[in-house]
Amino acid sequence: MAMKIPSYKILFAITLLAFFVSCTDKVKETVTKKSEMLPNGMHLTIEKTDIKKTSFGIFTNHNYGTSHRFKYRVAVDQGSIEWDFGVGEPKHFLFCDKGIYIHYLNENSYTEEARDTINDTIEEVRVTKIESQYQKYIDERYLFKLFGDAYWVDVTEEEYARNKSLCSEQAIPNDNELTIDAVE
User: Which PROSITE patterns match (predicted)?
Assistant: First the structure.
């Protein structure tokens, strides 16, 4: 004969369990700013925000994990040109007569298919890759830059490389949190 547990005891046990595994988050944001004059006479300002989030148990004070994120904001000539992609890490500006380009590294996530050789099945796997990306600054503002829009558009690595030989490339100071490993 099966023993029947009263529902109020089950509810009490679930509540008690949820109570002890509940977490509180501690978020710490650190903002650092760097400023420098580039060889071409432009003023560069780099603002990096580090965000560290740690989850602690409310009663047990157990550390359930810490995550780290960062975001960059880059301005040229006191904000006349701004780049704020967030999670990307800026590496180089390319100053050309025809425009301004930026090279940055970004962590991209993809879904790939992987074959399980034991079961002979195909499964989807999440893969994260750090990749170089490139953008060009488009400024369509007019009338003392009061109207219109300024924005960044993606360009190919080939377009960036083609212009690199004709333009002035300037390194952007960063903490090198994202790097691409050299293939041997």
Answer: PROKAR_LIPOPROTEIN (PS51257)
* Strands, E assignment, 58-162: 63-76, 81-86, 89-96, 99-116, 121-139, 150-155
Q: What is the DSSP letter of 147?
A: B
138: left (phi over 0), alpha (psi -120 to 50) or beta: beta
15-56 residue pLDDT tens: 766 666 677 888 899 999 999 998 888 899 999 999 999 988
Q: What is the 8-class DSSP label of residue 87?
A: S
The neighbouring-strand residues paired with 33 are 47
- Residue 164, helix vs strand vs coil: helix
Name which of 72, 91, 92, 69 is nearest 83 in CA terms: 72
Residue 51 in domain = yes
Task: Give the pTM.
Answer: 0.75
